[in-house]
Amino acid sequence: MSKSTTNDFARIIVNAFSLQSAITSNQMLADKGLTTAGWLVLRRLSNKEDLSVAALGRAFSLTRQRMFQIVNRLAEKGYVELQINEEEKRARKVLLTAEGREVLKAVEKELTALLGDALSEMPEKSMDKSARMLRKLTLAISGETAEKADA
């Protein structure tokens, strides 16, 4: 990897962290009783329902105990529901509730409004390509396969 490529990669990572930090510090999540971690869990569940606490923990590189704390807070707010997994009784499945879908929709509507001008300047094709590239970088660094990362 050339020095220029390394610098470009570092810039992408720094900007991604800066964006995540800006989202975290924005009051809209707190107004809905969410942390960044909680919001990301809701997003993950909206794309792939019926995940165990352990699978969510692996997806976010968190211990099962830490993920259980996040999931419990979301359950207290009514955003997720925990169910016994019939296939593996010890594993609890996490399901997104209607209230969870509504709060997720509200956050994403606010994010779209906040980012609207910046996003409107970027062609959809470029957004898709950027998302795929970030996913590839994540998989390369984590050493996970696409199937494992989606679990």
From TrEMBL:
UniProt KW DNA-binding keyword: yes
Record domain HTH marR-type: where: 6-139
A Pfam family this chain is assigned to: MarR_2
InterPro entries named in the record: HTH_MarR-typ (IPR000835), MarR/SlyA-like (IPR039422), WH-like_DNA-bd_sf (IPR036388), WH_DNA-bd_sf (IPR036390)
Keyword check for Plastid: no
GO biological process: response to stress
Source domain of life: Bacteria
Keywords carried by this UniProt record: DNA-binding
Coiled-coil zones: none
UniProt protein name: DNA-binding MarR family transcriptional regulator
Record lineage: Bacteria, Pseudomonadati, Pseudomonadota, Alphaproteobacteria, Rhodobacterales
